[in-house]
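Lab notebook, page 48
Experiment: co-folding of the full assembly
Goal: obtain a model of how the components sit together before planning crosslinking
Operator: M.T.
Materials (sequences as entered):
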Amino acid sequence: MRYLHLKKSPGHHILLLFHLKINEIQKKIANFALRDKECVIRSEQCNTQMQFTVAQIAAMVGGSIEGNPEAMVSAFAKIEEGHPGAISFLANEKYTHHIYTTGSTAVLVSRDFKPEHPLETTLIRVDDPYSTVASLLEMVAKIVEPSPIGIEQPCFIAEGVEIPEDAYIGAFAYIGKGVRLGKGVKLYPQTYVGENSEIGDGTVLKPGVKVYHGCKIGARCVLHSGVVIGGDGFGFAPHDGHYHKIPQLGNVEIADDVEIGANTTVDRAVMGSTRIGRGTKLDNLIQIAHNCSVGSDTVMAAQAGVAGSTHIGSSCMIGGQVGFAGHIKVGDNVQIGAQSGIPADVPDNAKVMGYPAVDYPTFARTTIHLKNLGDLYTRVRNLEKSNKKNSKDNEPTHS
Amino acid sequence: MRYLHLKKSPGHHILLLFHLKINEIQKKIANFALRDKECVIRSEQCNTQMQFTVAQIAAMVGGSIEGNPEAMVSAFAKIEEGHPGAISFLANEKYTHHIYTTGSTAVLVSRDFKPEHPLETTLIRVDDPYSTVASLLEMVAKIVEPSPIGIEQPCFIAEGVEIPEDAYIGAFAYIGKGVRLGKGVKLYPQTYVGENSEIGDGTVLKPGVKVYHGCKIGARCVLHSGVVIGGDGFGFAPHDGHYHKIPQLGNVEIADDVEIGANTTVDRAVMGSTRIGRGTKLDNLIQIAHNCSVGSDTVMAAQAGVAGSTHIGSSCMIGGQVGFAGHIKVGDNVQIGAQSGIPADVPDNAKVMGYPAVDYPTFARTTIHLKNLGDLYTRVRNLEKSNKKNSKDNEPTHS
Amino acid sequence: MRYLHLKKSPGHHILLLFHLKINEIQKKIANFALRDKECVIRSEQCNTQMQFTVAQIAAMVGGSIEGNPEAMVSAFAKIEEGHPGAISFLANEKYTHHIYTTGSTAVLVSRDFKPEHPLETTLIRVDDPYSTVASLLEMVAKIVEPSPIGIEQPCFIAEGVEIPEDAYIGAFAYIGKGVRLGKGVKLYPQTYVGENSEIGDGTVLKPGVKVYHGCKIGARCVLHSGVVIGGDGFGFAPHDGHYHKIPQLGNVEIADDVEIGANTTVDRAVMGSTRIGRGTKLDNLIQIAHNCSVGSDTVMAAQAGVAGSTHIGSSCMIGGQVGFAGHIKVGDNVQIGAQSGIPADVPDNAKVMGYPAVDYPTFARTTIHLKNLGDLYTRVRNLEKSNKKNSKDNEPTHS
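Observation: model returned without errors.
Model output:
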């Protein structure tokens, strides 16, 4: 009966399909919306020089050991791809069964983990294995990542610029007149900091970063290679069929704890400032146009682009290749699926996707409807045929 | 009656909606299509060192003063966001009421402006306040923007290259053999100009620009940081499952008065030239492939991409993130909405949008139709139900 | 009759239209999917200094001459745009008629070409004119393209780094501690190679390329200006509303014979490696996120973006501006149309397009259906009207 009913009512069928699909699609969207934010531990041999005993690691993370404290660990690996010399972690119950067969030398587990089978690996018990891995990665990073200091020659430092004692100025770096540098800044080789710009404490400009004149970068920021801060905004006034450049007299101001990915560009304002808020993270190859602002703690994936004078709120998650029109306002806590086009304001807490963007459920529904559009044409044709037949059938009745 | 009619004819309803929406959407499209071309004056404190009296500004713009000629002006501000020390302008009647309450020290107004209430601000009367602001910005820019001159060391200048007296060659700039430099060129630090390339009079290469060998850049061009001119076109011949590089023996030729945004790339031709026409403005992160040409006075917003051998006309306005297929021809005066995909030729004066792109009204209509697609499915289902019912109702009539 | 049938059955009409369109659209897609891979020979004067006699060219390509062996050739041109001093080729029968009127001095033809009219041009007969042109371009490139050697000053070479005798190290290049350089490497000016990285034999880094520490580039690779290899992956853990950086301790490994276009970015893995396979060609402004892998002999057009931990197979052809979600798997021999969004796994040999992507025929069909959506609304409205009318008509019958 139910089956017949479904067959007779294609709409219902679509609805079921749609409910199934919504979940699937929303998962995909979430996946699609942001590049990997998780701590992905892969099985390949780590290229760092880390070499620790299990006892050393347990000491670093405040963990207790069950097994061999003298075992050597030199790499991270997923628990299901473990190998000798690797350390893994178990944070998600559905991976628990792997702990009995993992090849890893050690596994970080929670304090209340109760093995139900014998174990070959050594356990390091900690309060929260997931966040412990993140801390552990940081500690290892401090040991194995290069952290240069001092001034390499040749570099260009304009007269009067003070270089803090603990700074790194790489070879071929250029520091213009009136530049102010915070404590512990690292200007890698071939970076450029234009006149009167300011780089905050502990901020790192990776090789080749360019900061135009008059810009302000906060403390503890990381700007990756190829980033351009303060290039002229795209401002031209049409006049007699030609375009006349409007001078871009503003600047860029980047708050503390911002990270900006390789080859991303943030244009200077025509007047006032283009602003990136505290703790915001921009991925690679992003465009932020003049007079835009992005709030704090917003993450934006690669190749997104924001047109002029658009304001994006705080704590947003913006997918890759998203495009924003100019002069619009996007609220706080907004989530935007990859490749979306945002032509108009978006309210706080909205989750949107598509070109032009609509809310997630509408996008998912439209996707399904589009898929079935061929069927719909067929159904309408059938209705037309049957209509024609009915008209004929009716004719003799009336005649 | 009319209301009933509307209710009975959903198509009509859609049509109304559609007319309303067309305007709205076309506004959005216009907004979306191009990043801010207007002179946006923001209220934030200007970071430049400008400091002028009202009398000085009036002299610069040929205006007449009503108020205090000695008042100091040090920033630009929107009239509705005026503050002491700022100058604003009034060019649009709908903002007129702000002039009576603005905090700005001075306001540029047209010669025939007649105040209807008392004013606290000082007026500077000019022929055309809007274009005056643009000129004023330019004059200020000449005063406050850095304009270096001379040769900084170390830089690399190949034997035989002549450096014009009024040029600027920044530290770590590299100038290859056979390069010709026009009068007043500015090659900022870390720029690269390959063998036999030519840079026209007054052209500026911002820090880190790379121009490969054999390319020609016209006069008065500005190339922003990270721009790459003359990289190899993406040309590979498939052979036995591998790709064989096709040497790219052509070059890039850029005409006069072109501006190119940060990190934009223009590939060299396989033979002949990839060409950018006079007065054309390219925004940031754009890709122009080998053997393309772009006409004169065309503006292209950020992250647009043009595949190989495509020709784009003059006086076009192209939105951000638009993609062009290869080997197509786009006419003159064409307008293309942001994120559009252009798979085929576009005639002169067309206004298109979408993926694939269609004319604006069709795009707007399809957007509305897509939004109502769920309803359409319901309506078709209802027709099917009623059809089934009708068939049954008819059956006894015939039996 | 047939005509009537067509008129009565709009569905059939659509179907015909659709078959016509499929071919057209698939051609467009193929066009759209990849930037020009063919050897495009343009008529403009070549900017290289090539100057050869027909006899020299025939010797270079193993061809036999019919005509004047002493004629001078200094440029390439399409056969239909030939001019004195140019060499053209005839590989496609449909261009055969041009050979009788071409202005070119010489034409490469196949050994079995039989002229049916008198010829003015000189023939060079070869086994395969198409592939001969590619070889000829390469031979010419070796002669006319700059190929520097030696060490320019100033450059920065860390203590202990060995520079192979036949290498080129441009001015302002930076080579960190522990870097290993293969034979014949060319590090152009302003390049950066971080600590412990490795550059394979014959690999070329064009001006300004940045390779972070610990990365491996294979042999015979070409990295164009602005390429960034090994920037940090976009990995942040949300914590109390802020994002906490996850150290990116992995690296990038690029196999042999890879070419990477200007301003493309390949991020280092969080652990393990981001990998680009042998013979793969990436165009300009592409983003490859951390822990991705791309197989061998895959070509990817400009501005495509791949989110984290996604694996793309071998021998794929990926169009411009395509976006891939993270953590998905794309098979071998996959073709993806430009601007597509790939939210989920794609099986081997699939040809997909759209946002989200579907197989080519479905995309083409949906495009047509979308175009006719206005008609469909009208047809449904007509059905509703006629239904209403029928209901009324039927009512009196039953009363």
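Interpretation: Chain A has a mean pLDDT of 85.
Next step: discuss with group before ordering constructs.
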